[in-house]
């Protein structure tokens, strides 16, 4: 006891207390409370993030793409904390919107989301969701979005950049193109698995059967195979299909047309020279066919030896077809290549 309460020990303790500055105890107490509060805030943030991820995983277990309204969008996408990427398709699927492009894009988006959901690499770092215009009008207004469909990537940290918006007009919305874009933005590689489609095989089998049956029925008279006019028509059909951009449509998978969900205006001609709609290729095909028909009539009027008045009428009709439809074709070209100086009849 003497050692414990000796005067020397008490004098040393008193000296240590005198060395502490006045008011240091409240400061230390405040610092301690601040550390406790920060630790509690961090713990609360971790618990909130865990709850959000758990909820998203539960929704993903039910369906590959979960729908969001304004409240869910702000809670799970806009509000922190977030350590996952979110792919959102902004669309207008309600029947009254009459957005056929939205339905086509939704099918490709569903294929992509299913490929991710049922892959071995599936994890809680990437989710797929959808915001319909009629269910999240406030979200469209908040993002200043006036067209659908639109695909956006919301990264785990920070705001989306320009590259986080998928260039649908230029690339198309095929599931493979979306997967490539997602890999560039998130480093998550998705192998797209499409459901089996036997329509092409069935169509080919029917075509072979039809040709084989026709050859069998006409086996005693196969002179039609050497018909130059028939082969010329087949060749022209192939040329029209290729020059109108059908192969580009097959590779890129663009929408048929574009409809603005706000004013209902439908665009059949894409405004950029780097892309096109399916309807645009059909229009170009018809125009090329009409121009070709006009050239055939002009040739017929020049080479035939019939009545002069009939030949004059054929020439005028052919010339009218060429001038009118070529002018229409040229106006479409000018609308896509801005600044093109040449024109014929002005359709703009």
UniProtKB/TrEMBL annotation:
Localization annotation: Endoplasmic reticulum membrane
Which N-terminal stretch is annotated as signal sequence? 1-41
**Gene3D superfamilies cross-referenced by the UniProt entry:** Glutaredoxin
Alphabetically, the GO molecular function entries are: magnesium ion transmembrane transporter activity
GO BP terms, alphabetized: protein N-linked glycosylation via asparagine
What residue intervals traverse the membrane? 198-217, 229-248, 282-301, 313-333
Q: In which pathway does it act?
A: Protein modification; protein glycosylation
Q: Which Pfam families match?
A: OST3_OST6
Q: How does it assemble?
A: Accessory component of the STT3B-containing form of the oligosaccharyltransferase (OST) complex. OST exists in two different complex forms which contain common core subunits RPN1, RPN2, OST48, OST4, DAD1 and TMEM258, either STT3A or STT3B as catalytic subunits, and form-specific accessory subunits. OST can form stable complexes with the Sec61 complex or with both the Sec61 and TRAP complexes. The association of TUSC3 or MAGT1 with the STT3B-containing complex seems to be mutually exclusvice.
Q: What is this protein called?
A: Tumor suppressor candidate 3 isoform X1
